[in-house]
Amino acid sequence: MWTYILRRLLQMIPVFIGATFLIFVMVFAIGDPTIGRCGERPCPPAYIARFRAEYNLDQPLIVQYGLYLGKLLQGDLGNAFNGDSVAASLLTRWPITMKLAVIALVFEVIIGIAAGVIAGIRRGRFIDHLVTVSSLVVISIPSFVIGSLAQMWLGVRLQLFPVTASGGTWMELMLPGMVLGALSVAYIARLMRSSLLENLRADYVRTARAKGLGPGRTVGVHTLRNSLIPVITFIGYDIGNLMGGAIVTERIFNVNGIGGYLFRGITTKDGSMVVGTVTCLVLVYLLVNLLVDVLYGVLDPRISHD
């Protein structure tokens, strides 16, 4: 197991370098990053020269990336165009996004897995059709529509939750967290249902039933663990999105998290903010994928990492 983890960590190095290099190229090499820095009028040549020298834009591209990578290895994500440290700004916003991600993750795991299991056990009945239709409806509705409707009905009219989450408290983040996890609930429910139905038709389940095991023990002990493997794969992918913070959801509920910070970097054309934020998200994705691969062996002993 430890050999596998070490091998995977070593494999992450070229992936991380390649991903961050592509991001760096797309932000700094494609187009002129000084466009829009001086409003509608073009920037003076002296300002452009000083700006390019300060951010090493006057160097060859590979040199620019090498200097950025050297700072990155020291934990320095650079400075935004307004002079603020990108790392310090992310550290102040990351706890809020983590709270939002935890709420969304708990919501989607509990509701999604429970709905999928119930639909799979009650295949062809009313509850199965209800889960299937409901998940299709949620998937077909854009997230900004779900967020706006939830904010208007649950926040403004019924006053069950705070309308905005500028303070970043658990209660303020409850509604945006549920909105953020709503789409994943639908996907997890459908994945859980299809995986459970497939495993219920397996030979080992028929053998367990032939030995006299009840439906509850058959599903809970023998079928559920194997059925969770595709769900865990999706959750691992989704954790990266949640940790990054959904830009649309954070904008609707005024959440001062990573998504809002990334949106501000994009709108202000601040390459340092965008590259630094996305670099952190790449690292999160890689670590979460490693955790998911390790969990495969825990859920299914037949999967060996040796």
CATH architecture of one domain: Orthogonal Bundle
Give me the Rg, rounded: 24 Å
What is the CATH C-level name of one domain? Mainly Alpha
Strand % is under 5%
Oligomeric composition of the shown chains? single chain
The CATH H-level homologous superfamily of one domain: MetI-like
Characterization of this structure:
With about 300 residues, this protein is mainly α. The chain has a domain at about 90-260: MetI-like fold, CATH 1.10.3720.10. Helix content is about 75%, strand content about 0%. It has twelve helices and no strands.
Quick recap:
The protein is mainly α. The protein has helices at 2-29, 45-54, 61-73, 86-121, 126-140, 143-157, 170-200, 203-210, 215-244, 247-252, 258-267, 271-299. The model has no long low-confidence stretch (mean pLDDT 86).
Topology:
Elements: H1 2-29, H2 45-54, H3 61-73, H4 86-121, H5 126-140, H6 143-157, H7 170-200, H8 203-210, H9 215-244, H10 247-252, H11 258-267, H12 271-299
